[in-house]
Amino acid sequence: MDKTYRTAGDAVEDIPNRATIAVGGFGICGIPSVLLKALLDVGTTELEAVSNNAGLDNAGLGMLLRAGRLRRMVASYVGENKEFARQYLSGELEVELTPQGTLAERMRAGGSGIPGFYTATGVGTQVAEGGLPWKYDDSGNVIVASPPKETKVFATAEGEKEYVLEEAIVADFGLVRAWKGDRHGNLVYRQSSRNFNPLAAMCGRVTIAEVEELVEPGELDPNDVHTPGVYVQRVVALTPEQAADKRIEKTTTRPRPGGPSSTEGALVDDAATHGLGG
User: Fold this and answer.
1) Chain segment 130-152, per-residue pLDDT in tens
2) Cα torsion for 220, 105, 61, 65, to the nearest 10°?
């Protein structure tokens, strides 16, 4: 089955208002930037986004955030996005902060048909006991707080230990970026872009993948496939210009031996160093 769509706009145009989207990437590494820009352009609003964080102020999810298109975020941290922090603290955005490993497992569980799981992370804190501020009003008062979660004691090799129940995440749509993909939706990620992308692909009921290089079915070695096509419903092939458009979150300089002074520095622009694998 050929799952390719002509443009990113065609692939996202039926995402309705108030949908939940799971978005791959970490910071701005491996984010589905073309799909997110297309979603911004079609005007979809009041979205709930599940992602490790909201990227930068003007990149990826940050574009939707700045345009006021997000009503809720499920993330592991606010990160470098000042607008994300501003909207959260001013009561414009509801935010469910979740431990990073727990968030990853909630997404994986959703894609595996597992409704919930027990973890030791968060036991004895507000993660389990409830009371984490999810939403403020414009005066800084908490108006929505996290509920208490079920806990259970299990026997372990170290003795009895308490665990907290976390529920799986299933999103209406998953948006991911892959290095290579075929027309059947089989995906390969490169280097550190293989972060939250496989998980976002798994937990979306309808998953849309933008791929830097589209190949024909049978060209990918099955042993190299990270996300099987069964998890992917739509594929968008990027243009060479779109594929090459990768931002660097932080620019690092260092003195070049025998070269410029440390003040002038030399740009460290190594894709692996900066995690630009996707």
Assistant:
1) 999 999 999 999 999 999 999 99
2) 160
pLDDT for residue 259: 65
Q: Which CATH number fits domain 1-115+168-249: 3.90.550.10, 3.40.50.12780, 3.30.70.20, 3.40.1080.10?
A: 3.40.1080.10
Q: What pLDDT is attached to residue 201?
A: 98
Quote the pLDDT of residue 265: 39
> pTM for this one?
0.88
The list of the chain residues with pLDDT below 70 reads: 259-278
